[in-house]
Amino acid sequence: MTPDTLSPDERAKRVWSLGSYPDIAPNFLGMAAHLVEAVGIGTTDTVLDVGCGTGNAAITAARRGARVTGLDIVPAMLDEACENATITDIETIDWREGSATDLPFEDDVFDVTLSCLGHMFAEPPDDAGQELLRVTRPGGRIAFTSWTPDGLVPAMGAVLNNYLPPNPNPPEPPFLWGDPDVVRERVGGGVESLVFETGTALTPVLSPAHYWEKAITESGLFIVALDTVAEADHPALREEMIETIEHFFDASQNAVPMNYVLTTATVT
After folding, report:
1. What is the number of H-type helices and E-type strands within the chain?
2. Residue 238: exposed, middle, or buried by beta-carbon count in 10 A (0-12, 13-18, 19+)?
3. Per-residue pLDDT tens for 142-186?
4. How many separate domains does the chain show?
5. What is the pLDDT of residues 219-232, one digit of tens each?
6. pTM for this model (two decimals)
7. Residue 267 and residue 190 in contact, taking contact as beta carbons nearer than 8 Å
8. Rounded distance, CA 266 to CA 268, Å?
9. Which of 21, 34, 95, 268 is the one with CA 20 to 30 A from 164?
């Protein structure tokens, strides 16, 4: 079975099984804390973390005393999350395998439904948005973080697209989840008190070239994409990518700032 014939869930499982996401995830710990803080999670809440990855948000919520379920489509992510929870002395999280577009839960189950970037890459995105609402009780809260459309990763994606084979049916860009107008269209009819905040996550690197090397060895997204680029084009792609990253690299911190939007809302 080729990548073109895989279902969206099969593609997601393949992408996120490659590379080394556990090496990337610590860069987003501050974002996870911001997410949990913004939605005011407490001891009486039942919480779902969609696309939980290695457990950043789920474990943060559980440390607040909430009853937490963490869901991810990749079993290896759940194993890593479970290990992180054990290290953190948290043993009460229910780790579940499943898809963000077909959550394996009844309607109106959770007080709070979270996603720290995980929902962004689910296809189709409208289904992911409706699932966040469906499993959250009326009066409950949804909250999620998303990269902004004007950030580094979308800029890198634009460069990469120039080197990829034509795709007659491209998916919607995941970074549209960072556009408040798009979010309003996807979930606005089922929520009230829709609020958008901004934040920044820092990815520590020594140079733009260092960032690119980490991207193509740690990120399944870039590993899969690079595999479809002609070998002869790799040097030109690398040069153009490093030039793009240079615009975002902050030498005073040896880091690349990654801007995100944090969305919160109350389900009606």
Report:
1. 11, 7
2. middle
3. 999 999 999 999 999 999 999 998 888 888 999 999 999 999 999
4. 1
5. 999 999 999 999 99
6. 0.94
7. yes
8. 6
9. 21
